[in-house]
Amino acid sequence: MTRVLVTGAGGMLGRDLLAVLAHRPDLTVTAATRKELDVTDAAAVRVAVTGHDVVLNAAAWTDVDGAETDEAAATAVNGDAVAHLAAACAATGARLLHVSTDYVFPGDATSPYPEDAPTDPVNAYGRSKLAGERAVTRLLPDTGYVVRTAWLYGAHGPNFVATMLRLAGQRDHLDVVDDQQGQPTWSYALATQLVALADAALAGRAAAGTYHGTCSGHTTWYGLARATFTLAGLDPDRIRPTTSDRYPRPAPRPAYSVLSHDRWAAAGLPALPHWRDTLADAFDSATPPAPWKVA
């Protein structure tokens, strides 16, 4: 029986990974939350990885603005800890699927970034995640998988969709930026894709390397907010477009975070569906207390 370790199991993506894996009686799953496994502890990581065939790494420092003031701490989780996981997998023969981000790119493109596009992060968070990617590539050239995602939302953590619906109950109108392009991605859909990639990797159908785990299509935060309001039965005209300079943040954001998905076909897997379809699926499948279930 295949043995799977999920790190970061208490987070938004980690909890969805556990939900997907719960439907697989052929797998033995170990869930490691941040409290149960300090991924920055190399010795603890070696012990945790031992005995597993696949490691799904959803552990991460996700505070983008916080990374600007404490890049060392962000890199310890997003870079050094990934190296610990990769080294442990190299020692035991386990395959590692590591979740990364669109923030490794500068965001100045005008067409979707391919998987092998040059990286050049514009903020500390992106640099910390790139360090993790490089560790996987260096230590696991044949059994390491990097899956970049972006604009993630889900039922189990703070995210843009939940924030928009919370603010809908507090304000008549919401001003949302309309000059950043990206691909909203439902965390449950990404979890399903990661498990499918793990299956393909174990079967020898998926080559190691980098994949882009974002939904197809693209929109702006303004477009996503309007779609969210529409699905929630709210008036989308309550959303008004604005520009990023109205909301200065400590960490600069890429203006264009649209990724291509060419490598999935070679692994015999479809890319993730259009973002509008998965957003609708998220609303259809959610049950209270999911944040998009509003009265």
Protein architecture, described:
The protein is α/β, with parallel strands linked by helices and 295 residues long. The chain has one domain (2-158, 183-217, 254-272): NAD(P)-binding Rossmann-like Domain (Rossmann fold, 3-Layer(aba) Sandwich), CATH 3.40.50. The chain is built from ten helices and 13 strands. It has a six-stranded parallel beta sheet, sandwiched between helices. Helix 1 (12-21) links the parallel strand 1 (2-7) and strand 2. The longest helix is centred in the first third of the chain and has 22 residues, at 71-92. The chain is globular, with a radius of gyration of 19 Å. The termini are far apart. The model has no long low-confidence stretch (mean pLDDT 95).
Give the topology:
Elements: E1 2-7, H1 12-21, E2 27-32, H2 42-49, E3 54-57, H3 64-69, H4 71-92, E4 95-101, H5 124-139, E5 144-149, E6 152-153, H6 160-168, E7 174-177, E8 181-182, E9 185-186, H7 187-202, E10 209-212, E11 219-220, H8 221-231, E12 239-242, E13 256-257, H9 263-266, H10 275-285
Parallel strand pairs: 1-2, 1-3, 3-4, 4-5, 5-10, 6-9, 7-12, 8-13
Antiparallel strand pairs: 8-11
Helix pairs in contact: 1-7, 2-4, 4-5, 6-8
